[in-house]
Protein: 1,2-oxophytodienoate reductase
Organism: Streptomyces katrae
Amino acid sequence: MSEKLLAPVTLGKLALRNRVVMAPMSRNRATPEGLATDLMATYYGQRAGAGLIITEGVQPSVTGQGFGNSPGLHTQAHAESWKPVTDAVHAKGGLIVAQLMHCGRIGHPSLYPSGHQSVAPSAVAAAGQAYGPEGPLDYPEPRALTVEEIAEVVKEHADAAELAIEAGFDGVEIHAGNGFLLHQFLAENTNQRTDQYGGSVENRIRFAIEVIEAVSERIGADRVGVRISPSNPYNDIVEGDTHAIYEALIAALPPIAFLHVLEGGNRDHITAIRAQWTGTIVLCPHPENGVVVNAEVAEAALEAGVACAVAFGASFIANPDLPERIRTGAALAEADQSKFYGGDHTGYTDYPTLEGTAA
């Protein structure tokens, strides 16, 4: 059982010792200024048995921040703060990439020190609420980016990628899903522009491709992953012509290390994407009937040929030694969802390994 899951695989320049990938998950344990902490180094180091760790979303600029205590990669201080994290993972033979995530219109000025107004393709507020220390807050209307500002955001992603390599990361993943900025440009309800970045599918994918190409040119495409979430309505997204969007996006991608696909009950579309994309795919499977992604679900995805590696979310939070538990067939612990976002070490670095102690 799990023979394929525990076998090595190569994603671009990244030689993974197994196909168990730690999915990006916001944990909000950075400082208010976005610096990584010693606690974060412990957390990621504990999970270094993964074939690859993809960090929580990291803002590539001040205006990219949408959540409190989320980490950044847009200053030299940020890069320095991440070095103990990457060192902790590498000391155990692991690989780690930083997920670059610009939140766009998702956020609220009261949640971060800069208090900035959110930016987006168009001045369309998201339905839903942000959650601050004092309770829920309606998402405010964002400011539409100018063409000149779009070019600056593209450069910010490339600069952040360069800082990531300086900080010791093995590469980066560009977040183009889950209703954040790149996804906002792709979707028809959030992108109401009439210039070269709006309207047709070709125009709506332009920004994402410019970001991906700029990052690839800066650090090498073989160190770059891209995360997409076709048909995902999260953060008030309505893509419209979903199949056309992703067919065009994938056709325009440079030879990146991997495509990371978040499944959402749309296996037929995932299969079509797999047929089109000849490179490697990391799949974050859809948990059927509320079942957390486990070894059986992951192995089935590998057997079906829709994935080269599989991303685990909550299972990795509660099981720092997840690959070893998969190897031995041990039962998986359940994560405490009340401790997912913010706080101290509780529900973060205190989950025991099979030996019964925190890793």
Q: What stands out?
A: The chain has one domain: 9-339. Residues 9-339 form a domain with the TIM Barrel fold (CATH 3.20.20.70).
